[in-house]
Amino acid sequence: MSSEAAAHPKGLAHHFETFEQQKESSFLGMWLFICQEVMFFGGAFAAYVNYRVMYPDAMIAGSQQLNVTIGAANTLVLLCSSFTMVYAVWAAQSGTTKWGWSNGRHIVLGLVGTLFFGSIFLIVKYFEYGEKFAHHLVPGHGFVPPVTSIDNPAATEIFFSLYFGMTGLHALHMVVGMAIMLVMIPLALKGKWDRNNHNFVEGFGLYWHFVDIVWIFLFPFLYLIGESVQKFT
Amino acid sequence: MSTTNQIQNPDGSPEPEFPKEHYLNASHGLKSWLLTTDHKRICILYLVSISFFFALGGIYAGLIRLELVTPAGDLFQPDTYNRVFTMHAILMIFFFLIPSIPATLGNFLIPLMIGAKDVAFPKLNLASWYMYVIGASLTLFALVTGGVDTGWTFYTPFSTTYSNTFVTTVAIGIFINGFSSIFTGVNFLVTIHRMRAPGMTWFRLPLFIWSHYATSLIMVLGTPVIAITLLLVGFERMFGFGFFDPALGGDPVLFQHLFWFYSHPAVYIMILPSMGVISEIIAAFTRKAIFGYKFVAFSSMGIAIIGFLVWGHHLFLSSQSVWAGLIFSFLTMLVAVPSAVKVFNWSATLYKGSIDYTTPMFYALGFLGLFTIGGLTGLMLGTLGLDIHMHDTYFVVAHFHYIMVGGAIMGYLGGVHFYWPKITGRLARGFWPHMSALLIFVGFNLTFFPQFILGYLGMPRRYHAYPDEFQVLHVLSTAGATVLALGYMLPGFYLLWSLKYGKVAGNNPWKAAGLEWTTTSPPSLHNFESMPVVDFEPYEFYPPQYDSAEAAEPVTGAEPAPSTT
Ligand SMILES: [Cu+2]
Predict the structure, then answer these.
(1) pTM for the full model?
(2) pLDDT tens digits for B290-324?
């Protein structure tokens, strides 16, 4: 093939023939990685469903210990972080240079926004966790059931095991994402990504949105089952 | 150019020459190996590491068989025996069998078979090896400091609450090793989707590729479930979260569901790649296209998909409802259908084929018989009534060894022998390779067939002492294990010997069909001199390129192509 004799274009890995092939490969790989993540969290959700059915009262009682307002506010914060992530991806796709900024600076603007909202989310989570410690609601560390009037008060400890396990894994995914963004920022400023070559930014965007979606499921499953049951009974 | 492009011809054409430039001498030094992103070198890295763990797991197997020679528990304390069989299983399953064919032959051959320069994500490929090494090292660390005694199944609440061994360390080791599986799976799926050469349509793919596609699906969708399961066990041990311990309100059966949701399909991670290898070997040495190519291809997918729905057959005696048991039993029967399709189609391929009795073919024929026995006894265990009698006995042990050793390892060794000339450029043929296949077949049957009888008579698994009447069968089994060990050690000697003294293989020593045989052995750094164009069907023997007057012309790249760097 004649293209092989020509120098391989910059930004195209040696084993790919075209930019299109490289792009499709990178997205397919990212989606498969997300499928893998779905199965990972899926296992935890399966455990949740199991105990939701086994101990309905205790799960509701546990859920009522969570602060819905804080949870809802934090959901909003996370959605804002998705919005800024979309800005970073859009900037890379469009190659925008408005306001006299380089394209890399626009990408960084989006990333910094995402880091900002992500940090707020984690800080709020930190205080939420701290409050659980203060109220002896941490499983395995002197847990005291918050209510005694239900069938199986000790099972509220399972609710909090799930709460800490699942929100902890979610937070860990955010921390990993934020660490990756810290690496991305200097690279973006150096102009690593441009209009033709920004698969990494788009792939990372997919990851961040996925982590948001996990929270979109965690929020009702953990925070809202108490509220809704209160209203209907 | 040298004459290395010539297809070796037993009728007196010139001896092939060893190619001057190939992936093994493309760069030098330890660093060039530890930082390589070449799929062929990563195959070698994996080959060396998994051989080590195979040997280590084998030593543990030997210790088990040694203890069981006598009815009394005289070699080990019960606690020690628990650790020995646990470490045997963990090393063999997670650090040998699961990576075995995909990480070595799969890595080496998938790009070659589809006409690509590399897998889609070469760096991820290297990362997968490092994940394997880190996970394996952690497990080794746990092993030397005391081991684990839970059995490889980590059943709760024993593993979460009562076991005083290194459960968390090993769980983390297996968790990290899981990344290696997932990375490999993602890589293969994307490579097969996006990296095929022009003309390489889905139904021109070798069946090896189809079986690896199915395997990769399981790796990507199943591995994360065992990851979260072991993580929950870890949380319970480290922080006292009560997920599985009934004393804390947890549900130990939930663990079994989650564990087997991965661990049943994991058996298909081990056996499907072997099935792919068997298809290649049988086609090459019957000189026929595999009978019912599409059926064999789709049966791999069928096994992968239905395989996700049968995990409950491990819970017939774990408080699962009878209705659930019935459904899981039915689905277990169903998953046998695609496996049977394969066995029938291979047999039909053998029928009236011009069979060449080479070492890989011996392994493949051994696979056919042993896998069939393993599969049929699996059906017996999948029936609700019989399973109550045979659950947790040596019948189960014999059954899964027929699948995982008689099936998966036979396929792996057959594949290693078949592709050895491609990987190293040297031939390892003759008396000793034949001998290894024979010893393994005989030794294997002698080891594990008595265990079917033992189990049927009621010998439970995981016991280090047993009643006197079982001794004859146990001694037979141990004798078989000795022969088996000899058979497994042989290839280690003659394969290494062949690296220096083996005859030069040439491009296609077996006269097999497929793109991988059109390039040099060992292949050059970028696999093909120029992008191959596929205009032939899978297993098309004697295509015009091979037997025309210009037989010396390679299928592709007749013109010396310019360097691809
Ligand atoms: Cu099973």
Answers:
(1) 0.91
(2) 999 999 999 999 999 999 999 999 998 888 888 99
CATH of the domain at A66: 1.20.120.80
Of A29, A39, A139, the CB nearest to B121: A29
| Whether B240 contacts chain A with CB within 8 A | yes
| Domain annotation covers residue A102 | yes
- Residue A5 domain flag: no
Task: Determine the pLDDT at residue B2.
Answer: 39
Average the pLDDT over A202-222 and give the result.
93
Measure CB to CB from residue A32 to each of B189, B250, B258 and give the nearest one. Answer: B189
Residue numbers in B near A39 (CB within 8 A):
220-222, 224-225
For B13, the 3-state DSSP assignment is coil
Token reading at B377: 């006894």
Domain-wise residue ranges, chain B: 37-551
| Residue A49 domain boundaries | 18-228
Separation in Å, CA of B237 to nearest CA in chain A: 10
Q: Give domain status of residue A80, yes or no.
A: yes
**Residue A219 covered by a domain:** yes
What is the number of structural domains in chain A? 1
Rounded to whole angstroms, the Cα distance separating B564 from B531 reads: 10
Q: Å from A165 to nearest chain B CA?
A: 8
Closest Cα of chain A to B103: distance in Å? 18
- B531 CA to centre of own chain: 30
Model ipTM value: 0.90
Tens of pLDDT, residue by residue over B45-69, are 999 999 999 999 999 999 999 999 9
d(CA A111, CA B415): 48
Residue B524, strand partner residues: B527
* CATH class in words for B37-551: mainly alpha
> From ligand 1's centre to the CA of B311, what distance in Å?
5
CA B32 to CA B22: how far, in whole Å? 14
